[in-house]
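User: Sieve element occlusion C-terminal domain-containing protein, Gossypium laxum:
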Amino acid sequence: MEWIESFTTATKGIAKALDIGLEMVYVGKNNAKERVKKITGLIKEKQLSHAWEDDNVWFFWNRLESMLYSKTQHGKTIENDAIKQEVMAMLAYDGSENGWAVFFTGSDEMVRANGDKVLSSMESFDEWEKLAKQMGFIPALRKQLEGITDDHHCTRLILPENSGGIPGRVQCAECGRPMEMYFMYRCCVE
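Assistant: Predicted structure for Sieve element occlusion C-terminal domain-containing protein:
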């Protein structure tokens, strides 16, 4: 919750400084219903941003899994399909314990990053504010994020059993290197 508050405060400050419209929504996690309900309640209580109800959270993550399944069935790979690459990155964020953020303007511009990286960028906005005013928020944020090296990270992509096949090669959403494959069994009691 602390990350959400820090991120929301910093991001709203940037939107105000740049005089841009900004909508935020908390989409939760795929398999952490009680935790998501608790966080959603706190977000609404503190009026930090919008937060989706359980059904919409489920539909969001289920749609991403369906897109991955469809792309895999059609023989798409991360090398030849940018959408599959982005879907896998989003699913990897769901598998992590950290926050994450995606910023976009329609289908034109998009930038995404893990929580630590994006919060660090938001909190150091004074370093790239001039650039944001020149080239726009998303391109400037992308440039800022590219300048942050993340020497230590552990990215997990958890695919459901019924995902329609395991992709042969999976690229890390953070650094682009090939990920190692493991089998994982999980019991998450909330």
